[in-house]
Amino acid sequence: MKRPFDLIICDMMMPRMGGEMFYWAVTRIRFAARQRFIFFTGHKHRPAIGFFFRRVNATVLYKPFKLAALDSAIREVFRKLG
Fold it and tell me: Which ranges in the chain belong to alpha helices (H)?
């Protein structure tokens, strides 16, 4: 958190802290980071995850995904940043 970053690629299901909790922790300290996330998950049909993605206007990849999809998601994030 001490150094600037361009992008955060975050899994929604991590061992110690879920992606949603990680997002809120980071954006509480660095508000501008909210537009720099790409989330990925294998849980496409979980209502709570879908609600979170809509709430934060997330860029999302659903597993399994191809490298081209990641490249496209990265370009989408940088377009959002303008």
Answer: 19-29, 47-55, 67-81
What superfamily would CATH give domain 8-81?
Response regulator (3.40.50.2300)
Every domain of the chain and the residues it spans? 8-81
pLDDT band at 1 (very low <50, low <70, confident <90, very high): low
Distance between CA atoms of 12 and 20, rounded to whole angstroms? 7
Tokens representing residue 73 in the block:
């998601």
Q: Is the pLDDT of residue 40 over 90?
A: yes
- List the one residue out of 52, 41, 37, 47 whose CA is nearest residue 7: 37
Predicted structure pTM score: 0.91
